[in-house]
Amino acid sequence: MAELPSVVLRDPSSPLTATYLPSAGMLCTSLSDDGVELLGQRRGLQAYLSDAKTMGIPILYPWANRLSANGYDVDGGAVTLTPGVGGVRTDGNGLPMHGVLAAYPGWLVTEQSESRLTADLDFGSQPRLLASFPFPHVLTLDITLADRALTVETTVTPTTAAPVPLCYGFHPYLTIPGVSRSEWTLQTPPLRHLPVDDRGIPTGDVEEWPAFSDTLGDRSFDDGFDQVPDGGVFTLTGGDRRIEMVFDHGFPAAQIFAPANDDLVAIEPMAAPTNALRTGVYCTAAPGRPAVSGFTIRLK
After folding, report:
1. pLDDT tens-digit profile of 132-167?
2. Closest CA to 294 of 111, 124, 140, 106
3. Cβ neighbour number for residue 218 with a 10 Å cutoff
4. Using CA atoms, how far apart are residues 230 and 10, in angstroms rounded to an integer?
5. Looking at the whole model, is its pTM more than 0.90?
6. What is the CATH number of the domain that holds 230?
7. Around Cβ 239, how many Cβ atoms within 10 Å?
8. How many domains does the chain have?
9. Residue 113 belongs to domain spanning
């Protein structure tokens, strides 16, 4: 495999670096603090490129997590999703998973400096993408690395009279090298828990989730939430390292994924809960009113 061109951002005030691959879906492959890698590499880059096996920080677009069937209705129209076509991939139950932009090469870098990277994807100009998500718009990522923090802002700008459903998310795999996973402490703000069925689809029931703080031990998570407040802070700590995941704005839902067989925790900002494209529980970007969301990974 030929090496893909990368962009390495550098924090002017610390040894923190972040590496992005614009031609591989704007994947963030590394967040390194003086050589210490803080992103879970999982199966590696090749598995992401060939099979959409996630690693680092991928964008999940236009929907995060899974849908309960191969299609959805919007404004009286039906959209059919065909697995294997137009970027649609499925989970073990055959359900569409994590959108259509895994490793997508069509991003255009519009600004690049030592600590900032901005890139656009003209979704509306790509028939392959519109077949699965027929809402013309421009998707913009604006990424800044400064003051020991990686900030990612996402803007969805409609390019026709059609509003654009906002159901996307990101999947940051966080890890603390040199400290046993069992000794990591996870903290969350008060949230609302969304129980799921055996396919991972929310049942419609809800449970209150008080503020949480505990060591992982041998505990695993694969849990969805909503009612995440703007500015909500999740933390992962271990040894002398503290990683904060801040839901700055525009991400009212979250997924926490901490498999027992891997030394990582994903704290996933989501614009809407799992299966929102089918339930209609989402906000939209309206013509003339671009929708902006943001999250920050801050190191202490």
Report:
1. 999 999 999 999 999 999 999 999 999 999 999 999
2. 140
3. 7
4. 27
5. yes
6. 2.70.98.10
7. 12
8. 1
9. 7-299
